[in-house]
């Protein structure tokens, strides 16, 4: 291969990387657009259907960008704060408020993303208050022991947490690759997307492929439980006293209790509150079955992810677009 061909391949790869990160950086731009559209709709006596759909389009992208930002930035910062808190043993009341708020914001980002997926499916009813509350609570309760186990591990092996993350990230990246994701337009940006999903899977469940999710979610949950147990057991085996003796007696029992409560709420959600997977008939007269066709201006990426999360969602039309209308 000639040097010119190598240069073209390198420039193409760099262009795909730039496209992916430009899409991630567009969070603040989309927020500003959402505010402008919201004020424009507020001024209209009868908002146009196109304007309402465009506002929904922007809100879908914002929900995904917020989710990426939460697990790429806010969650590692929370682990760092917990590490400092456990090592120093000094926590002011406002710091407890900040830590609690950080946990709530992470679970809220997952709920907001789930609601955005539901809005892509016209045949599914909107998420109710009870189901939203249960979904938020089980994510919060399952996130707490995972993040706490990572923070405890950093108190004894602060230099090895990066190696632990990279090892699990490679395994999770391979798992995402085996699911044949097709989200970004180019191969390089698709691998960056898979790497971002692998980061989310390091902390919480995130489905990206079509088909039934029960078996994959059970495998992922078992993987995280085993890893978190090893991390907590490693900290307990070293028996390194914390600066505040009143902290350690309830850390592991509290994490175990949170996990059991979260697991119970998750089972209750998927048993009674999760949207039904049954396909409703559109025309009972001739017995045909299917879903209502989505509008062309819906967010193509979010619609594709909704099809993955809800296996029998309506297939997105090939002429849908994602970007500026």
Features:
71% helix, mainly alpha, globular, 325 residues, 10 helices, disordered N terminus, disordered C terminus, single chain
What do you see in this structure?
The chain contains 10 helices and 2 strands. With 325 residues, it is mainly α. It has one domain. The protein has a two-stranded antiparallel ribbon.
Short description, anyone?
The chain is 71% helix and 2% strand.
The neighbouring-strand order within the major sheet is 1-2
Q: Please describe the biggest sheet, giving its number of strands, its sense, and whether it closes into a barrel.
A: 2 strands, antiparallel
Q: Tell me the fraction of residues in β-strands, as a range.
A: under 5%
- Coarse structural class: mainly alpha
**Percent helix range:** over 70%
Distance between the termini: 40 Å
Taking all residues together, what is the mean pLDDT? Answer: 75
Q: Total number of β-strand segments? A: 2
Order of helices and strands: HHHHHHHHHEEH
Structural domains: how many: 1
Radius of gyration: 22 Å
